Each structure stands twice: as C-alpha cells, then as structure tokens.
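[Meeting: bench + compute handoff]

Bench side (C.D.) handed over the final construct sequence. Compute side (W.E.) agreed to return the predicted structure before the next meeting so the bench team could plan truncations. Sequence as handed over:
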Amino acid sequence: MIQNTTLETVADIFLKTEKVSFWIYNFEWDLIYTNSPCSNELRNIFFLGKNTEKIDADSDTRVAFLDDDFGLSWIVLTYQGQDYSKGYYILGPILITTISENILRERMSIKDMSVSSQIKFINLVSNIPVMPQIYFTHLGSMLYYCLFHETFKPEDIYASTMSTTLPEQSTPISEISAKTNYHGSYAIEQKILENVVFGNIYFESSNHMENNYATVGTMAIGDPIRQRKNEMIVYTTLVARAAIRGGLPSETAYNLSDQYIQKIEACQNGNELILIGNNMYSTFIHQVHALKNQTTYSYAVTESLAMLHANIPLSVDISEIAKTLGYSTYYLTRQILKETGKSFKEHLASAKIEYAKKQLLDPKLSISSISEVLKYSTPSYFSAQFKKIAGCTPKEYRLSKLNKK
C-alpha cells in the first residue's frame, strides 16, 4: 500500500482507465510498490531496456522521459525523502504506436532473451497501452502534482543524458483526445517555421518544440522508433524549406538537411532524436540569421560554416570539412579568413560559446558538465574562453539570465 492516499487513488485511476502502471523504487532500484498486474515481466523489461543507466547518468533530475531499447516509453520522477534518501516514481510503459512482432523479436534477440521470455513478452505487449506522447506527458504532470504539489512544466523534462528545450506551456488535457489519431495544428506548424524564415535566434522563448508533443499520423505501423524517425525527417524537411524561403541557398539547405537525416537514421531511441531535432532547428535558424545580417559569403565559406554549426557540440576539423567539400585545407582556411575576417578556429570557439549559452539556461546542467560536453580540457579553461568571448564568466551569464525570468 502507498501511504499517500491521493497518490494511490491517482495510480489506481491510471491503471483502471488507461492501463498505465505505477511503480516505486528506492535509489538502489529495489521495488517498493507497483500496481502492475504483470510486475515481474515488466520489471525485467525495464532493466533490460537500460533505463536505470539513463537515469543514473543524472540522478539530480526531477523528471525524465525515457524511450527504452524495446521502443517502450516511461516517465520517471525522482523524489527525496526526509532522511535525504532518494527514489523513483515511475509511470509506464506505453507505446506511441503499435509494434510488430518481427520488430519486437529483433530487439529481443539483441538482448539475448530466452525463448520462453520472448514468448511471454510478445503476449504481454498486446496489453501495453498505445497513446500519443502528449497524453502520456499529461498523466505524468498529474502524478507530479500529487507528489510535489507544484504545476508540472514540460521544460522540466529530462530526456536521456542531455537537456532539451521544451514548450513553456502544455496543452490543457481537456483539448486532447487520447483515442483519436489526428494531425497537429497547421497554425502551430507555421509559427514554428516562421522562426526559421525570419532567422529568429531568440526562438528559445517560443514554443518551437511543440510539435514533439502533438499527435501525428501513423507512418510506420509496428515500429515506434521508425515512427519517430519518420516524424523527425518530415520536420527536418519542413525546416530546410523554410530556411530556403528565408534566403538560405537551396544547395546549402539541402546539404544540411541530408546531414541531419543521416544522423536521424543513426539514432537508437527517441531521446537522441529530440536532441538532433533541437540542434537541427537551431542550426538552420542561425544560418538564416547570419545570412540576413552579414555579407553574403561564397559557397565554400557558407558551406564550411554550416557544417561547423551542424556538428556542435562536437569539434570538427577544417581538414575534414575541406575534404568533404572538395577543397584543399589551405584554400578553405584562407577563404574563411579573407571573407569573414575571422579564422576557422575563431568561428569554432564562438559557436561553442553560443551553444554553451543555451545550455546555461538550464539550471539542472552543471558548468563542468557543459565544459565536458564541449570538449574543453578543464572547467577553468572553459570559463576563461567563455569570458574572453562573452565578456563574463559562465556563472555570471547564468545568473544574469535566470534572474530575469
């Protein structure tokens, strides 16, 4: 039994009306409570899906949305007891689309599951609810309120091991049909794409990721990961075309789009796809903004800078870009300096600091972790470089921005 009667009632409602199970684990991942009628089987699947590794990667996170290795989705809320012990409240699993037996068998074989375990899981999947991600998120928001007596904000969600920018407000649950498969609002889509057309680099304050929470048509029956990839490919195509309308050369836009679609295809779960989507959207907007506010550069320089931004937070070597574009490193290095007045290394340093600024807006991310992601040798060197380019330290920048909110 759960000591919190309100929480027990909500958990019971979720199970009886939506078939969504509720779980409580301590910080060592010992099961304390569940109302799942298939607790042993689903608990094994949760651990086989490597979900505990994803949560432990950032144990201070309060809310996490996880896609596991089987295509199942879970919401995990971290709690801290009066004795400062930690644990987890979990909802799930659900599927965002039906999953075929062939896809399921393929993923189970990778996990070396026994034949008997595979048969049990296949029979079990038919009882796992299928619902839009947005509806599942709202179930999580109800649980969040029961636990913390605070309004849940979707931007608090943590996906896998990296931060994402999510909408400031969620759609009221009264407007959501969990059983109807309909397409997102055209008006919302146009609002998202307007940021690209006009090169609105202040898009962080707008609902640019709202499409991640809209229900969409089924494009890959039986394969949830393929469904998510198809959604992101469509999203990338729309953003690329919006960038062309904003003035970005079509060849540049299509090359960038191709790069991101290749990254999308390489993704293993929905969390990685969200991160790729964030980076893709930001890159196209900054490219259009630069075009509208700077002198037009040659094709070689434009493509080089686009590839640089597309690979942040990873550092890319100019020799790799030169080889990809078919130029010599010497020629490309000179052209970038000649046309922009800055060296490639200076552009790379500035791009990394701009990326860091976005990450610093998330108070859950430590400055040292941001430094590590950007491959700086030490946090102190990162702070020195940040101050050199931005005029203040990362800590000062974070405080100045967060105090304005």
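W.E. noted at the follow-up: The chain is about 55% helix and 10% strand. C.D. will use this when planning the next construct.
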